[in-house]
Design brief:
- The chain has 325 residues and is an alpha/beta fold.
- It has 10 helices and 13 strands.
- The strands form 2 sheets. Strands 3-2-1-4-5-6-7 form a 7-stranded mixed beta sheet, with helices on one face. A 6-stranded mixed beta sheet has the order 8-9-10-11-12-13, sandwiched between helices.
- A hairpin with a 2-residue loop joins strand 6 and strand 7.
- Helix 6 packs across helix 7.
- The longest helix is centred in the middle third of the chain and has 16 residues.
- 27% of the residues are buried.
């Protein structure tokens, strides 16, 4: 039985990850907590994302409690007022765990108590439960690993790696007249490989492809305009589309609608390294999306060069996503 779930609120750029962490954790356990307590330090800004994204059943049990900044808090300062069967969900630095265990040690000297610390495995595929049973000032520690039941959306993984992106809402996403015209052209009268392509058509192609992907029943989430920002606030890498599949695959998709740069872009994609932080790495697949009349050329380059890249077009993307199931 879980009495309370305790969570220390992280800065705003990490709060989307915390929403998903809490949701995934509660989906994987067989009981629901009496309370969900978010501890908010004085150096945290808005917490509006939680009220916006958490289900009503969570919000009914949610309360916020102020705490000082952990960097300025001495150990054993009774921050959490630990109660029996509290579950502390670790979502930040090791300092969080150190503060909680320090307080638990003081509590165990005076009372018999059981508390649990929960964290994810490095590949984010499971939760590890460390159970602290405190009796007569002695602490017994046991642990178990529980496989998480839900797929982690790419937005959560990328939001902690300095990526910026937009999320396509499959419900509200609608095709513009330009997108409809381009789709009809590809379906009924595809232009030759040497046909003149206007620069703005590339953007229309990219957003059209993102829309089609978001509507596929096997796709959990579609991101567009994904940029990873370096420490100098410069864009170090950009991927046009990133999507999360129900089978756990993640797709990096580069879009090239114009006439030039196919082989160059395929070489870049073949040599692009998946960050070691994006685990499991074998679940990340790289796609090259192009005009249907250029698809055969792209596939020839891939076969001849042995690139670990797959090519798709507007006319083949649906079948490609379906076969991933």
């Amino acid at each position: 039985m879980i009495n309370r779930i305790l969570l220390i609120v992280q800065p705003e750029n990490q709060q989307h990850r915390q929403v998903d962490l809490l949701t995934s954790f509660l989906e994987g356990i067989n009981s629901f907590p009496e309370e969900i307590v978010f501890f908010v330090s004085e150096d945290i800004g808005s917490t509006a994302i939680f009220n916006k994204e958490l289900p009503d059943t969570f919000l009914e049990r949610l309360q916020y409690k102020p705490i000082p900044s952990l960097n300025n808090t001495p150990n054993g300062n009774n921050l959490f007022e630990i109660q029996n069967n509290d579950h502390f969900l670790i979502s930040g630095t090791k300092l969080q765990l150190a503060c909680f265990l320090s307080e638990l040690k003081f509590e165990a000297e005076n009372n018999d108590i059981v508390a649990v610390c929960v964290h994810e495995t490095p590949d984010q595929s499971s939760f590890v439960f460390h159970r602290y049973t405190c009796v007569n000032s002695n602490i017994q520690i046991t642990h178990k690993t529980v496989e998480r039941k839900s797929i982690i959306p790419a937005s959560r993984l990328l939001s902690t790696k300095s990526y910026t992106f937009d999320i396509i809402d499959p419900v509200t996403s609608k095709l513009s007249n330009k997108q409809k015209k381009l789709l009809q052209s590809e379906q009924n009268n595809p232009r030759k490989r040497t046909a003149k392509i206007e620069p703005q058509e590339g953007f229309v192609f990219e957003t059209l492809l993102a829309h089609l992907i978001s509507q596929h029943p096997l796709v959990i989430e579609t991101l567009i305009n994904c940029e990873i920002v370096s420490e100098k606030a410069k864009t170090a890498r950009e991927e046009d589309i990133v999507c999360t599949m129900k089978n756990g695959d993640y797709l990096f998709i580069s879009c090239k609608f114009g006439n030039s740069g196919t082989l160059k872009e395929l070489k870049r994609l073949a040599n692009a390294s998946i960050s070691r932080n994006l685990q499991p790495r074998e679940k990340w697949k790289v796609l090259f999306a192009t005009r249907h009349t250029k698809l055969e050329v792209a596939e020839q380059h891939i076969a001849e060069m042995g690139f670990n890249v797959q090519a798709v077009s507007l006319l083949t993307i649906d079948a490609f996503l379906t076969q991933l199931n």
